[in-house]
Design goal:
Layout lengths: L2 H8 L1 H12 L3 E7 H10 L1 E6 L8 H14 L1 H10 L6 H18 L2 E8 L9 H8 L3 E6 L14 E4 L1 E2 L2 H17 L1 H5 L3 H17 L1 E2 L8 E6 L9 E8 L2 E9 L13 H4 E6 L5 H14 L9 E3 L10
Parallel strand pairs: 6-7, 11-12
Antiparallel strand pairs: 1-3, 1-4, 2-3, 2-10, 3-8, 4-11, 5-8, 9-10
Helix pairs in contact: 1-2, 3-12, 4-8, 4-10, 5-8, 6-10
Length: 318
Amino acid sequence: MDIDRLRFIFFPYTDERSIEAKTTGRRFVYYTTAETGYKIIKHREIWLRGTSTMNDYLEAEHGFECLNAAYKSESGIALQKELEPIFPGLTEQVVVKFNEWLPRIRQDTYITCLSEHLPEEDLNGRLSMWRAYGGNAGIAMVINGGVLFLKNESVRVSAHPVAYWTQEQMETEFRRIAERIREHGDEVRALDRTVAEGVVFQMFRFAMLCTKHPGFSEEREWRIIACPAMLPSPLLTQAVEVIRGVPQAVQKLTFANHADLGIIGLEIHEVLNRLIIGPCEYPNAIWKALHQLLLDGGIPNPERLIYASQIPLRHAVL
């Protein structure tokens, strides 16, 4: 079974959102401070941070609680009943493996967060995101969506839509997966048991890592996820950096092609769609700085990429 069929059966929510993003040419956006945006462009790299050090680290616990409750619910039992006749003992085996990996999933998962970017946000960005992540001078880095859907086994860094679910909504998704296993049983039975074990394990893992409280739904978030201890990637380099006074391990993803591995489309001029300067006191100074930075980086006519948001957002004066 190819990866698309596996995703259709075992990851229906991710499958539907991915198809929608690809067919609509969806772009994505990284809201951050102007200082961080400057570093990303200058060094041509973005950092994936450990989930335990991020400002929303408790979200992984929300995902785990939803997963745990859904697995024990009637929907979870229905899922187990569909898998058990095909692969006896598989679900219990996956639960044991998942529990063994749980500390590493919590401590050694690295992510960076993007948001879906809509055409109507091209000029001004999204006010709620400026308030949450822009600080007193923010930048929205809009990227072409194709980079999130590279089909290459060497990448080992994956993009997943966040589901803003309650426990009951995750139970509904478990029921849907059980129904798809039943409807496509011949394909599932054709799987090697080791492959089936890995798929169910990853289903649990991403359910935990990509479920957030419904109150955050306006963010329309996607997560770029890596776990080098589980799946080392040639795209990542580990380093220790100080972020807001806290030394921590990060994974650095460089904007560069790897022709030897067949990984292309990662150069920054291929990835970057536009830059939106957030509401701030010095938009002209930031515009000029970004223009020069892109010129120095070999990107021609950078003025076509840079826009200043006209949202009249006031910042508190301390």
